Amino acid sequence: MATPLRARPPAGRRCRGFAAVSAVLGLLAWGGLTAPAPAQQQIEFPKLPPPKRTAVAPQGQAQMLVQANEIDYDYANHRVSAVGNVQIYYKGARLEADRVIYDQTTKRLHAEGNVRLTEANGEVTHGEIMDLSDDYRDGFVDSLRLDAPDQTRFAAARAERSAGNFTVFHSGVYTACAPCKDDPRKPPLWQVKAARIIHDQGEKMIYFEDARLEFFGQPLAWLPYFSTPDPTVKRKTGLLIPTISNKSSYGAALEVPYYWALAPNYDATLAPMITTKQGLLLQGEFRQRLLNGAYEIRAAGIYQLDKDYFIRSDGTTTPGYRDWRGSVESSGLFALNDKWVWGWDAVMLSDKTFLQDYNPHLSAYRVNDALQTAPTEGTSQIFLVGRGNRSYFEARSIYYLGFSEADVQNQIPVIHPVIDYKYTFDHPVLGGELGFKANFTSLSRNEANFDAISKSVLTGSFGNQCLTADPAVKTPSTCLLRGFPGVYNRFSAEAEWRKTFTDALGQQWTPFASVRADLATLHVDNDPSVANFLSPGDSDLARAMPAVGLEYRYPFISVESWGTQTIEPIAQIIARPNETQIGRWPNEDAQTLIFDDSNLFRVDKFSGWDRVEGGGRANYGVQYTAQFNHGGFVNALFGQSYQLFGRNSFAVADTANTGLDSGLDTTRSDYVARLAYQPNSIYTFTSRFRFDNDSFTVRRLELEGSARFDRWSASLLYGDYAAQPDIGFLDRRQGILGSGSIKLDANWVLLGAARYDINAGKFDQTRIGLGYVDDCLILALNYITNYTYSGNPVADHQIMLQLSLRTLGGTSVSQNVGSLGGL
Q1: CA-only gyration radius of the chain, Å
Q2: For 270-292, what is each residue's pLDDT tens digit?
Q3: CA–CA dist 115, 137 (Å, integer)
């Protein structure tokens, strides 16, 4: 508590209580005595008013408030001592100590005993002795400990501060880790010890001289000098932490990035990587944020010193066999308003395997950790996207760039634009919901893309007949036409209406109707091989598909003491004409068809616009659900589809044989089923089946289970897929994919994943990782088997160590530990 200054005691007089507080207040706020009392004269103090926390200072000077148990005055030496629970408040800062001495002549405060200085910004400094100027700007501290508001900490045998923003810590220690709760005297997870630590708060930089980086109290690295921005800085020009890597394609490498904070809204990074085999890889990045968006540009390039590495053992060369290699990438995203955005992505490479061989640090396609799958293609696109309350619009022009040596770029289509639009009316139409959707696709391709569906009669090897130039060999019985050479333009639009009625018995009736129209123009290049599938030249195509139908559901609900059971028969009948011109229309976007429980009750089971399901069809099944009171459930579905009349769209081959071997290509389809069981929040089991409609043999089977406890989780997926020779899968496929993790304690986690090919009898993917994460440290050790097909094909076994220290940055070290050639 404190009170305004009323009078001043004579020399040598000791004051107690609030009078003492008032006296020191006057000394410190005004910087000295205003009217010295005559020596040996007694001055009578007037009675003080009740305590107040206010103080008066001359105009233009900040007030200083002091609290203490007692005050000692030494007028001969112009000193005042505050003793016992001293607290001094000045400009939002608070100084606490057992004893504080103020020297009027030097205008300095000397605090000792449990000294604690709390700055206005929340920074807390502890020490045994602290010597400060009366405005706290300059001074020194013995046995210092400083806690910053950003949870960083300094300690030093002695520290000096000058100019209010320049602090030197002698024999200093810095860390961003919190002290151990059980034993605060234990070393933190990591700390930097240095002969001198200099914190320039004006420049917002921390400099370390003769520094050692310690983990768990043990030194790991020594640096004669390094610097880092202080934790208050988000962007600062300077060197970033180097990274070390090792890869068979370029050898050992050291990457030293340099960052430029050019302006508040744009920056640049240059990251040269020096390699032992291939020389210097230069890479850079520029980023800028504008008022309505942001963009970035990235580039990398190298002149290879050992391009012969990219010659195969048989003497043939790979795409990497060249002197100059590199990449250019860019991306941007901008908002036109609160509903519309536009942007782009772009990538250009010297060759298709450059990113795979060098994995540039600044690339958007970089594989950052061992559990990340390497990208298989690059996408260059420009797009416009709009979203309303009940509508959606998207337009994209796309150029795909294959990253695999097996990719033939001329066989990959260029999408001039693809446009999608959806709208649902916000008011009922004929009592139901009416929606509209449309799609426009325009693409071109320079070279036909064939896939083999049988082995060569001459050689017995798979796929040779589709690589030959002989058009007599490329027929629908031996090959699939995945994409034709030429230009394809198609516009499709569909309107759909549906309404659900529930009668007095609880039966749900949902009538629906739709009408769809497609218009297309295509130019097929005059290729004799393609002529076996599509007519060369120009064609104009049109088709329409109206459909009406009714869906019926009748849920029977039974409430038991343990929960609720529901048995729900479901039936759907659809009437529509036959699909026309099958085989005349190219199939670019509807080549994927998996018949299972997820699309049993879809009106059109094709996945894209290039095919449309026709003919009368009935879909029927029964669904059972049991919901337990404690939260678990069981769900099962069993059903089938039946071709009622007309042509079965799935039994007629198009250029890609979509629909054949799907289980829908017979009058009575295969049976599909689903069984899911979740007894509680820990376990989940899901199975999906497809059974042959005659023999009931399993044609497709997926079994998936997962478990999640407090400390560990695991998942396992088994797949068994029958041969589908009409679409190129001549053999049965079986495999197991498993993954799991265990939390060893609050911070450590062990995780792994593996895929086993049962038919081949080997693991084709293995990933293991050990990680540590807390508020100041991220540490990860990963192992991965990486299959490389550029150069001499090998399976690289790689170990990757990643380290990130809060406020200092992160780095990584990767090392090949062995290779298996001859894949």
Answers
A1: 38
A2: 999 999 999 999 999 999 999 99
A3: 16
Query: In angstroms, how far is CA 407 from the centroid of its own chain?
Result: 28
Q: Would you say how long the chain is, in residues?
A: 823
Give the span between the Cα atoms of 320 and 308, in whole angstroms: 9
Q: Please return the burial class of 594, using the count of CB atoms within 10 Å of its CB with bins 0-12, 13-18 and 19+.
A: middle
Q: What gap in Å lies between CA 513 and CA 580, rounded to an integer?
A: 19
The predicted structure's pLDDT at residue 57: 43
Report d(CA 43, CA 37) in Å as an integer. Answer: 8
Contact between 773 and 745 (Cβ < 8 Å): no
Q: What are phi and psi of 25, to 5 degrees?
A: -60, -45
DSSP sequence for 101-136: EEETTTTEEEEEEEEEEE-TTS-EEEEEEEEEETTS
Distance of CA 575 to the CA centre of its chain: 46
Encode pLDDT of 206-222 as tens digits: 999 999 999 888 898 89
The CA-to-CA distance between both ends of the chain, in Å, stands at: 82
> d(Cα 601, Cα 572) in Å, to the nearest integer?
7
> Side chain identity at 501, as an amino acid letter?
F
Structure-block tokens of residue 16: 């107690």
Please tell me the distance from the alpha carbon of residue 216 to that of residue 191, in angstroms, as a whole number.
Answer: 8
Residues 45, 19: contact at Cβ < 8 Å?
yes
Distance CA 357, CA 304 (A): 12
Run of H or E residues at 237: none
Contact indicator for 464, 490 with CB cutoff of 8 Å:
no
Give the distance between the most distant pair of CA atoms in the chain: 127
CB atoms within 10 A of CB 14: 12
